[in-house]
Amino acid sequence: MHIRGDHAELVVGGRLDVRSAADARTVLHSAVDDGAGDLVLDLSELDSWDATGLGVIMGAHRRAGRCGRRLVLRDVPPQMQRLLVATRLHRILAIEGGIGVDTLPRV
């Protein structure tokens, strides 16, 4: 897993899972605490995430809200869009461009 960027936009790549969760949490919390306005997470380079990785995203979302910021997901890969829809988190998280629920293949 790799994360690059600043307190306004981060690009997340690789696997966001139980092995990378602690490092990702540290970087995301630091970005939330050090910035202002929307924090954009570009997920175009993300290969996969598991429940722990999704929990890290949700934790950053909650922390951003407490800091008066908004966490915005950008370029969410289709397989991760399906997970967000299945867990109904697409209704809670800000997703740039939204998710075309009707266009996602059924699983």
TrEMBL record:
Looking up Pfam families in the UniProt record yields: STAS_2
Q: Which GO terms describe its molecular function?
A: anti-sigma factor antagonist activity
Q: Transmembrane residues, as ranges?
A: none
Upper taxonomic classification of the species? Answer: Bacteria, Bacillati, Actinomycetota, Actinomycetes, Kitasatosporales
Q: What is this protein called?
A: Anti-sigma factor antagonist
Q: Which domain of life is it from?
A: Bacteria
The family database entries (SUPFAM superfamilies) matched by this protein are listed as: SpoIIaa-like
What CDD domains does the database record attribute to this sequence?
STAS_anti-anti-sigma_factors (cd07043)
Which InterPro entries is this protein grouped with? Answer: Anti-sigma_ant, MlaB-like_STAS, STAS_dom, STAS_dom_sf
Domain annotation STAS: ranges: 1-107
- What protein family does this chain belong to? Belongs to the anti-sigma-factor antagonist family.
